[in-house]
Please model this.
Amino acid sequence: MQPVSVGYLTVEEVAQLARCEHKTVRRAIRGGALIAYKPAGRLLIRADDARMWIEGRRVEHTPAHAAQAVPRLASRSSVEARVARLDTMHREATTG
Model:
C-alpha cells in the first residue's frame, strides 16, 4: 500500500493541527467553510485548505481596557511544522 499524498490530511489530523475536536472540523466541512474530498469513503482535506481554514480565524487585536487578553493563533510556520510532522508520522506508519 502506498502512502497517501502528503498534500492531504484526514479530519483527525486537521483537528489535531487546529487543536479542536474532530466534530468542529466535520461541522466546518458540512457548513462549507472547509473543503473536503471523499475518495473511497474517507474524508480528506488538502493541507493548504486546512491552513487557510485555521488561519482564516485570526483573532483581531483589541485594546487591553476593552477586553481581557486575547489568545494568539499559531503562526504559519508552526502550522507548517505540525503538518510536516504529521506527514512524517503518516509515512512511517504506512511504510514500516
